[in-house]
Known about the structure:
Oligomer: single chain
Helix content: over 70%
Amino acid sequence: INKKKKKKKMDTIQAISGLTFSTFSLIHITNHLVGIYEGYEGHGKLMKTLRKYYQHPAIETILLGSLGIHVTTSLWKTYKRKKEKKERETPTEKRIHRYSGYFLAGTIGTHIYATRIGWYLLGEKEGSNAEYATYAIKKYPLFSFYGYYGLLIASGIYHTIYGVRKALLQLNMVNGKTMNKVIPNNKRTWKIIYTMTIASAIGALAFFGGHIHPFKVTQQTLEKFEEINHNIATLQFEKGTSIN
């Protein structure tokens, strides 16, 4: 009985923390997808507006805290499942959700450091931008940043969709009948979601890769990107190295 209560408690904590962080991940992913159609300028304008929400000191603290809690509870559940050898035949959509979660858990820290913390320490208070992402892809193409960004975007999209659906049901915020009208739990629906996830990731990669909209930055900006990239990689946080 105690084990069941503890598991239910951990499930609830995992669901609440996941939903909390999804208020960021949903709009962040949407921002990137908007860039496919609106280009760098549209992406930048929307990001600047959205950052007023998720970069507010109190909100950002809550989001980072919820992320840490979500990753911790998820890893705890994985450990308990392996330890108790309760692995059963798991549906494909659930396995993909788990694997995407493992990938995100292993890369999210580096991503946050490279695009937010590192830039903040260099004096760029808001963080990186789409142009910097394009610079990174062009500097480290093929199996490095194309693969990294592709998996990051695809994992983020799918993990969020599946996770939000599961959390809303877990917390009884939406009943099963209503949820099945919105996102039916059948093979056809998940195949559509797989396809949309892959298509969205390819579209976002094409945008960040500079293949849809012209990548126009000054030589001075490129040199600053080089400097920022070097300083973040080597932990050299000197004043006056941001692009502003």
